[in-house]
Amino acid sequence: MMMSKKNGAKGHETPLSPAEEQAKITELRALLGSLSGKLLLFCSDAALSRYLRARNWNVKKAAKMLKETLKWRLEYKPEEIRWEDIAHEAETGKIYRANYVDKYGRTVLVMRPGCQNTTSWKGQIKYLVYCMENAIINLQPDQEQMVWLIDFKGWSAGSISVKVTRETANVLQNQYPERLGLAILYNPPKIFESFWTVVKPFLEPKTYRKVKFVYSKDSESMKIMDEVFDMDKVESVFGGRSAVEFSKDEYGQRMQEDDKKTVSYWSSAVSLTSSNNLVETLLLLDPPNFESGSDSEKDDKNLESVDLASGSDGSPEVFVKDSACSGSGPNGSAKVDIDLDPHKIESAINNSS
């Protein structure tokens, strides 16, 4: 299957046409099968397109990646993180969403690794996830990518944590693919170049190609700032002309208002939910196998429908209708005992209630 077209004259690859892209989105959606609730809301055509682009339009690889994200979202519940959960991580402004966008209308996340104030890598990742979810909920309708503006003031080799670096790369690349439009590293110290050689193996080529080094004393590199931002709005630490500085109290008020926006957005998933999100439960219990390179139809499991019935003892039973199934359920559907893993079931049901 062709992922792109070759231009024989120059040897360049030509992007897929809109019709070809939509065909792949449709193919990917078919592989995912029936979705409901928050997972259905998450899996918009735009989201599917991002996962396809992240895997160079390989549908099976994109399906495998997306399925892993869906399971992660069910277990981690990033949309349920609130300001009060991570406020202590934000005290120094080590990551915050700027009150301006770039010239292309993209959300700007300011990162200040030199302002690290905690030691728990789990807490740091949770705050990063919160910031990513917040940045996304505030993207303009015509944008799906953001800009990271990274200030290295106060950063030192002692700030390095390979564990946090690896987890950060994993979350950003695997759970938020194609969300980064540009990352500007502002005034990184000389020693960072050595650290960068450690970081790059964790990043995909298309990711680190979006990284730009900018130095305040290098007028040529500073042109990047002028090209991307309205410098009247940018903080003075980045060579801008704004005197605004980070205030935890003011930022906290903004985030609490944004939390209401987040709740409103995800609550719309209720109308898309049926049978207590049992499809999500089944995805957790028996995630489809989307191994790349396998073209076998039996590997492409597709849930056609889900029925809820009561067992002889009054406990709920799930029947999955699948073209490859036969036997114990009504209408030839396969019976799935939802007591196989009560912890996962309880988590999924509570999530939908």
Automatic annotation (TrEMBL):
Biased composition (Basic and acidic residues): 295-304
CRAL-TRIO domain boundaries: 83-246
Entry superkingdom: Eukaryota
Molecular function in Gene Ontology: phosphatidylinositol transfer activity
Signal sequence residues: none
Pfam families with a match to the protein in the record: CRAL_TRIO, CRAL_TRIO_N
UniProt xrefs under SMART domains: CRAL_TRIO_N, SEC14
Disordered: annotated span: 290-340
Record-linked CDD domains: SEC14 (cd00170)
InterPro entries cross-referenced by the UniProt entry: CRAL-TRIO_dom (IPR001251), CRAL-TRIO_dom_sf (IPR036865), CRAL/TRIO_N_dom (IPR011074), CRAL/TRIO_N_dom_sf (IPR036273), PI_Transfer_CRAL-TRIO (IPR052578)
Name listed for the protein in its UniProt record: CRAL-TRIO domain-containing protein
Organism encoding this protein: Araucaria cunninghamii
